[in-house]
Amino acid sequence: LFQTFIAQANQKHVLFYLYDKEAQRGIEALGVAGKIREFDGDYFHLNQANMGGAKSNLFVRETVVQDIKVEGDGTVTKTVTVTYKNPYPPSDCNLERGNLCLNGILRNWFRLYVPKGSTLVDSKGSEVKVTTTEELGKTVYEGFLTVRPQGSATLILSYRLPFKLESSSPLPLLIQKQPGTAGNEYTVKVNGKEIEKFLLLTDKEVIIKR
To answer: What's the rounded Cα separation, in Å, for the pair 183 and 198?
Structure first.
């Protein structure tokens, strides 16, 4: 039971908040408070909320591909492609028959947290204009899309990082998992070449060598 508890905390299925400030700082140091972390390098945190009444996010499978392109002058441009697929038929939402409307239209409000000062180059897939704000020391790209039962949707965001890499310098990348999510598939590419693929079960640091 103790091992299960530790695993659930590490995977952010359990979060902690303590009134004692010193104790809370210890909790944050362990990474189980759900806090957005400071990081020297590239940063990525995709935070999403189901704005519909159904529980359709339980049926949606999600994959995230980050393709990193480094120019000769050290400029770093990232293209992030998020693919959503719901292979299941819709629920019978007739409440008069006593049915549960679990698998309906996913109304997904997304926020992508990236290094502060990043510049949005292009966006596709959002059903509203993608807005750029700043929060918690990060630049945030925000939008909205829907995924229907037995349907799919694709979100593509391209942005330029606020710093340049020196010649042959590695790029440290921190990917922070959204609490409560269930191990979405992530792929990291450099100039179109896959360098790592994994299920995001907890926060993950990747050192990208060129």
So the answer is: 9
Angle at CA of residue 45, ends 138 and 125, nearest 5°:
100
Rg (CA), the chain: 19
Closest residue by Cα to residue 138 from 107, 159, 166, 164: 159
Inter-residue contact 13 to 179 (CB < 8 Å): yes
The whole-model pTM stands at 0.91
* CA gap 186, 205 in Å, rounded: 12
Please give the backbone phi and psi of residue 23, each rounded to the nearest 5 degrees, phi first.
-65, -35
- Classified as helix, coil or strand, 56 is helix
Chain position carrying tokens 């990082």: 161
pLDDT tens readout for residues 107-163: 999 999 999 999 999 999 999 999 999 999 999 999 999 999 999 999 999 999 999
